[in-house]
Design goal:
Blueprint: H1 2-11, E1 21-25, E2 30-37, E3 42-49, E4 55-62, E5 68-72, E6 77-83, E7 88-98, E8 108-116, H2 123-130, H3 134-202
Helix pairs in contact: 2-3
């Protein structure tokens, strides 16, 4: 069984690899990347910005409420890390600023590698700190991955229950509104019949 687990780990079937992304930041421009992340999850990032005379790039990591989790003026190359306080949408933004207007600027190349959860943990340092054997490290990694999957399924189940409750509540409201609309239509039609009957009687068109 252990050999089978190690075979899966070595082939990468259980741990998907995460690669860095690269994009160009135009002068005086701003680009942001957003991602939904669960609560109490470790997030690490590594960035590299190509230097250009007369241009500086500012990096800022925030949540949906605007709280600044990491900020770096004149970001060039570095790392950041934080642990999420709640399930939220987190945003990584790069903004280009010109410090001089005498240069002709070109786009800056930015490389960003963001990892979270199991991918963000450094199991080599963990193995050294706890003096774990390679097999124990892989089993620890597998355990963390299993916990992450369980949390994802639990969250999906919770969202499914919330959506089902919302759907049932909406259906009930639509039913009540439909009954009320039918009642209004019947009442209006009845009033129109009596009104027309009185009108025709007043004109002596009917008895």
């Amino acid at each position: 069984m252990i050999r089978l687990l190690l075979l899966f780990l070595s082939q990468g079937f259980l741990l998907p690899g995460a690669g860095a992304i690269s994009f160009y930041l135009p002068p005086q421009g701003k680009k942001c990347l957003k991602e939904e992340i669960h609560k109490d999850v470790l997030v690490t990032g590594e960035y590299d910005v190509t230097e250009q005379t007369g241009l500086t790039s500012h990096l800022r990591v925030t949540d949906s409420a605007g709280h600044i989790l990491y900020s770096k003026e004149e970001a060039k190359k570095g790392k950041f890390a934080f642990t999420t306080d709640d399930y939220d949408v987190y945003e990584v933004c790069f903004e280009s600023k010109a410090v001089s207007g005498t240069f002709r600027f070109t786009d800056q190349l930015i490389t960003l590698d963001v990892k979270h959860g199991v991918e963000a943990k450094n199991y080599e340092d963990l193995a050294k700190a706890e003096k774990l054997k390679p097999l124990e490290v892989e089993l620890r990694r597998l355990e963390d991955l299993s916990d992450s999957i369980v949390k994802d399924f639990t969250y999906m189940k919770q969202r499914e229950e919330e959506m089902r409750d919302t759907n049932e509540s909406t259906s009930l409201r639509v039913l009540y509104f439909s009954v009320f609309s039918m009642f209004c239509l019947v009442a209006l039609a009845t009033w129109q019949v009596f009104y027309l009957r009185r009108f025709f009687k007043s004109k002596k068109l009917i008895e």
